[in-house]
Inverse folding.
């Protein structure tokens, strides 16, 4: 079973690796640790082990609890960090003031300084020392190791000076303010980082806020009862009044009204809902009254599914993150070596004295910042995916953003992707004395069993026709659908591939009875209004555009010519589409756009599959990117732009994180930075990365 823990104290890739190693020792599988979400998910055989694992993580410095307890634990943990920061600040300020008062001041007394430093150092031991020791036991040092060694070195050296050095010379050995300042500034950095990271997940929290807290249940006796939305069960009857949000997915039983789904799909136009229409959790009833039957509880409704997708997307980070991971894996040992070398070189070869040598070595430890490399990718991915989710584009995998940003080939299915998919029968010619009424009934009866866009359109157009009973339904994707009536006659509807004899006809569909031609059907479809905008955008960015379709050459040629697509393939069966996509994907980065259900094999074979659908289709959709709403091709442009911006931001973040350490560590090593300034710089480095990621939120909103 899958378990998700909420974990405090994840500050760098070292923390992530420490937790992963610990969970592996506990025989957990499918482990994923997110520093941005502060979560770890994994699978175990027994649920009872979850509490034991949470306790064991707490023992090595990472307080953990199962996610369903998040409301109580989040507040407690946040208050604990605030208290630690305020307490440390209270005792650190007087320690810093000793530098601006006279030598005879009480603040210059070594035992007063020791008394002021002990509470701060104790907090440091509990906060950083526990985590540092836990990471060392897991054989993967985290950033807290550097902080703990740096602050402890200054404290122990100062303690030595206070107790053992002659009273006339002790002030040269007191660096209590350095130890306390390192701890306080890093706690401040953690505090600000937590606040900033919280902003990167604001889109996720906005989705969570769409969940309605209460609902009106229609009891069996007809009375209405106000209940907690968490208590809604599938098949419950609910009353939705004007202005209320719909608590869960449902189907309208009675009433009518206009519903605003913009918070989920980005569609600004209200949609009229009446009997048998489906409604989405989180949408708002603008006018009217609806009685709906719940199709799910709140844990499995559309909002929850979108929320899970956003969280799941964090599990597959872009490949560019591997650069940061490789550096982080050896970062701490290298910094420890540089710090030791700085101390020895400064003391023995540069003759700087033990005090200055120690301060330089400590500065190297505390200015080093692996956190920025760990935050570079996940913060950017979270902001980009969260923003797109609010605008009706759902990304299932974080690495999809990198692939879309670097894609050079875009492959389009024709029907329902570049065209509306709202087909209309314009002409029918019957044979074998088949009447138009009989033909319509057979067409409707056959197409009811198919989910192809043409089938759905025909069923809607022939809604008034009588439906007959058919048996032994068989569908060959992209070719035909057949069934047997009560007289054992076999009716088959499909392309001209089903005909046994050559027929001179430009009809789009053919109906046969016992393999003999019974009817020719002409249908028409229109190109989407926003199709040209998307194609022109891709052409302007020098992308290769390919059109795939199972339709006739004439139809494909007309669409390709109208949109300016030079390369198109027609009369392709699903397996032929699959083979072509695989061939293209073998030597280039491909994005396939099509129907998430009918084109599932081809979508899965491309580097990224993009499909279009209603919010209620999310669970069954096979694509990595799902675009919701009707006018959805313009949203594809938004996805591409957001992907490029996210990818660029990740590269900027990684460059900053690497450049900062490459420059800052040597500067600290040669003694140009004090440990206090170094600790402040380290905290600032994290905030630069997070702040840069937050810019995506506002750029994608344009």
């Amino acid at each position: 079973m899958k378990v998700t823990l909420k974990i405090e104290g994840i500050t760098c890739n070292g923390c992530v690796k420490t937790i992963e190693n610990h969970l592996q020792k506990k025989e957990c599988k499918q482990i994923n640790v997110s520093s941005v979400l502060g979560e770890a998910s994994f699978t175990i055989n027994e649920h009872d082990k979850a509490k034991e694992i949470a306790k064991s993580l707490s023992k090595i410095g990472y307080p953990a609890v199962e996610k369903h307890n998040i409301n109580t634990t989040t507040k407690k943990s946040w208050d604990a960090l605030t208290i630690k920061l305020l307490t440390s600040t209270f005792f650190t300020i007087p320690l810093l003031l000793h530098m601006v008062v006279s030598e005879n001041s009480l603040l210059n007394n070594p035992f007063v300084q020791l008394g002021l430093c002990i509470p701060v150092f104790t907090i440091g031991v509990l906060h950083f020392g526990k985590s540092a020791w836990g990471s060392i036991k897991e054989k993967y040092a985290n950033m807290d190791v550097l902080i703990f060694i740096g602050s402890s070195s200054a404290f122990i050296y100062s303690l030595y000076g206070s107790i053992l050095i002659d009273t006339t010379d002790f002030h040269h050995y007191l660096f209590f303010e350095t130890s306390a300042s390192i701890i306080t500034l890093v706690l401040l950095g953690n505090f600000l980082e937590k606040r900033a990271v919280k902003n990167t997940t604001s889109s996720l929290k906005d989705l969570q806020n769409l969940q309605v807290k209460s609902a009106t249940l229609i009891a069996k006796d007809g009375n209405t009862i106000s209940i907690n939305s968490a208590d809604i069960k599938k098949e419950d009857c609910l009353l939705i009044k004007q202005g209320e949000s719909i608590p869960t997915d449902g189907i309208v039983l009675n009433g009518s009204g206009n519903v605003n789904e913009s918070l989920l799909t980005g569609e600004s136009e209200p949609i009229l809902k009446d009997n048998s229409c489906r409604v989405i959790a989180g949408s708002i009833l603008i006018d009217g009254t609806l009685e709906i039957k719940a199709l799910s509880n709140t844990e499995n409704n559309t909002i929850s599914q979108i929320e899970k997708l956003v969280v799941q997307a964090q599990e597959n980070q872009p490949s560019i993150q591997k650069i940061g991971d490789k550096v982080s894996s050896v970062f701490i040992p290298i910094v420890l070596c540089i710090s030791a070398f700085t101390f020895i070189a400064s003391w023995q070869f540069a003759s700087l004295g033990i005090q200055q040598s120690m301060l330089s070595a400590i500065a190297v430890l505390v200015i080093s910042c692996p956190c920025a490399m760990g935050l570079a990718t996940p913060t950017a991915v979270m902001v980009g995916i969260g923003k797109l989710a609010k605008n009706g584009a759902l990304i299932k995998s974080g690495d999809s953003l990198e692939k879309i940003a670097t894609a050079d080939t875009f492959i389009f299915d024709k029907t329902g992707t570049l065209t509306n998919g709202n087909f209309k029968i314009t002409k029918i010619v019957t044979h074998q004395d088949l009447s138009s009424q009989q033909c319509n009934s057979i067409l409707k009866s056959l197409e009811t069993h198919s989910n192809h866009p043409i089938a759905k359109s025909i069923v809607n157009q022939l809604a008034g026709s009588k439906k007959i009973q058919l048996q032994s339904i068989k569908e060959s994707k992209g070719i035909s659908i057949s069934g047997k009536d009560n007289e054992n006659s076999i009716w088959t509807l499909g392309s001209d591939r089903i005909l046994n004899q050559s027929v001179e006809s430009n009809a789009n569909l053919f109906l046969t009875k016992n393999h003999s031609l019974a009817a020719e059907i002409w249908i028409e479809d229109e190109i989407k209004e926003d199709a040209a905008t998307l194609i022109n955008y891709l052409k302007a960015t020098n992308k290769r555009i390919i059109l795939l379709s199972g339709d006739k050459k004439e139809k494909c040629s007309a669409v390709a010519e109208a949109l300016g697509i030079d390369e198109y393939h027609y009369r392709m069966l699903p397996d032929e589409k699959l083979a072509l996509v695989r061939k293209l994907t073998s030597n280039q980065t491909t994005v396939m756009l099509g129907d998430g259900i009918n084109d599932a094999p081809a979508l899965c074979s491309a580097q990224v599959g993009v499909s279009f659908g209603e919010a209620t289709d999310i669970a069954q959709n096979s694509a990595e990117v799902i675009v919701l709403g009707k006018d959805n091709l313009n949203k594809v442009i938004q996805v591409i732009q957001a992907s490029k911006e996210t990818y660029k931001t990740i590269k900027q973040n990684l460059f900053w994180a690497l450049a900062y350490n490459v420059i800052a560590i040597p500067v600290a090593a040669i003694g140009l930075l004090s440990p206090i300034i170094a600790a402040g710089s380290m905290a600032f480095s994290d905030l630069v990365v997070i702040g840069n990621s937050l810019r995506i939120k506002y750029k994608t909103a344009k």
